[in-house]
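Objective 1.3, modelling of assemblies. Example input:
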Amino acid sequence: MTEKKLLEELDQLERELGRPLQIDQPALLHEFHDDQEHEGTLGMKVLSIVSAFIATGFFIGFTFLIGLNSTLAFAVMGTIMLGAGCVFCRRDLLGILGEAFGVALMVCGFPLFLAGMSDVTNTETGMALAALALAVLILVITENKIITFLATVTMGGCMLFLAHDDYGRFGAHLYVGFFAIALTLWVQSEALLLKSSGLLARRYDGVRTGLILALLIGAGYLSDFRFWMDLPRLPNWYASVALVPLLFWLVYDLLKRFNHSQGRVGTEMPATAKATGPVLSPLQRLYLAGLLALLIPTIFAPALSATLLCLLLAWKAGYRTGTALAVIALIYFISRYYYDMNLSLLTKSIILSTSGGLFLAAWALLRKKISSHETTAPGPGGR
Amino acid sequence: MTKITRLSIKLLARHSDLKPEELDEALDTHVYADAGRWFWLLRLLLPAIGIGFLACGILFFFAYNWSEIPKFGQLGIAAGAVIIPCVLSLIPSFTELIRKLLLTAAAFLVGPLFGVFGQIYQTGANAYDLFLAWCIFILVWVLAINFAPLWVLFLTLVNTTIVLYSEQVASGWSYTMLMFLLFIVNSVAVAGFVLADARMSGVDYPDWFKKTTALAAVAAGTVCCCSAVLDLDDKPAQVFYLVPVLALFAAVAWAAKRYKNLYHLTLLALACIAIVASIIIRAGFSTAAFLFAAIWVVGATTGSLIVLNNLRKVWRHD
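Predicted structure (tokens):
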């Protein structure tokens, strides 16, 4: 995007708002040019992360081969690397050069520092707590998108370990419920978060991706109980206490927004709604009832509803990477769900055929409505 | 109404007196999915999940009663599972997407048909025979409907056939040779898709498909090179696999630079970093080699990112 295009868009937005905005133009343009200068593609970010992990593997291999077993040495090396990583990650110092170094140093420094702390935190729980505290600290100190993403996922991993360690399977449900609420609030309150403070605004994107991955990891943990937990089948609905209402609220909010936007352009909005605020139409109530019918069978499969929540939130926000992650996870969890189901092939067949028929019936019902929007739909969204 | 990008709105949020409710309104109008995009998602998800579930339900039903069904019936059911979606795909009132999805489902069910045939007649064939026949018999559909998900199925089957052939028949194949073959197959595929996309009118493969195929080719080539390097003492002749792989990587890098394709350059950068790291480890399998490899990976990544970022900035305006 060029500066000219940016200024045109800002003008358009000002016209739409109907009031002049007080804009700090030098600061805005400085951040814009900084973003255009250093914001790499998704592929470049993946290259940075993969390389950082490969380098960490080699370096840890090196420390083992030289027979280094002093916790003090590990702690010192880890501290130096984490400190240097924080400095290098600042874009205003070295730009993308420092960013690549910074990510590698922090990824390498993190396990080394924890290894150095092993005398102090001599239990697994202690180690997980130390890792969690360190990840929170890194998240507060660093603005870099890759680091904030990795710190959020690390926090998720530590919390999942601690929850499972303390409360067993129930802990994993608590974790999924907590992260589902956190992700929903994070995405739904985007405007508020971006305006509340620079600290949150600059970390918004990295944390959002991290929360999606952390929630999917938790969902994966719940979906595959035989392999991961080696536990018998237990009541599997605890996380659904949070997931089902969240999904319901999300869809209700979306329908309300559609009514509101239709009201803005003066079409299809009931007269009562214009006076009293958005009211759901009978068809929209039918959509909600359909959603409820869809969610009831997922009460005992929280991995499915968690992934559905990720999919809806990512799609709503126009976030392609999140959508792709959620779709891949959804396909896997659905297959896993039916594979693990402790029922006869006949019962599985009836359930699958009935649900397939219901989805096709819903498609047939909505087809006319969908076709009328076909020409305006731009495809899997996101800018 | 022209859509405003998320970047502009975010910059304005940070550097103006825009209120949270105004920001929310702007995001809602310009960035968040509107009704059209939600219906696009439903148009794709509902029939895909519905057809998938229904097909699985039918399969499970026959699996449940399988031993009770006479052999002729078993063959009839398996053949019917292929024929029915084919016939349904001829119904003109279905959209093109649905018809292609139905034919993809039919192509997928060709495999179970061969499986049933082999089971009833006790052909004694290896698993690779089944996959090879599956590939051959769906080839016409793959070429005729030219649909990305069906190509994914076909390429997965071709790769599986090669892997199974190396395990069950070709006893003398090394791991490096196997990876080399997979590299060649996937490279030919990706070259074909890119050329067809550029030269043939009416052909427009989705971006995710070309990227996935390229990822498969580069991954196989990289593993082939790393394996050849690390196994050099036992099989020195394997070093000759490096020449064509590296030559093709160089040619792709040249083409990617010429046609301004940052994705392929990023993939190749990662491949080169991994191959050189394996050379460093192999050159001196000692303590220092691990340190040098770590330094190389960090240094090369930094260098690659600087080059890639410069290219991105230059190409952005074209």
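Residues 35-65 of chain B form the longest helix (31 residues).
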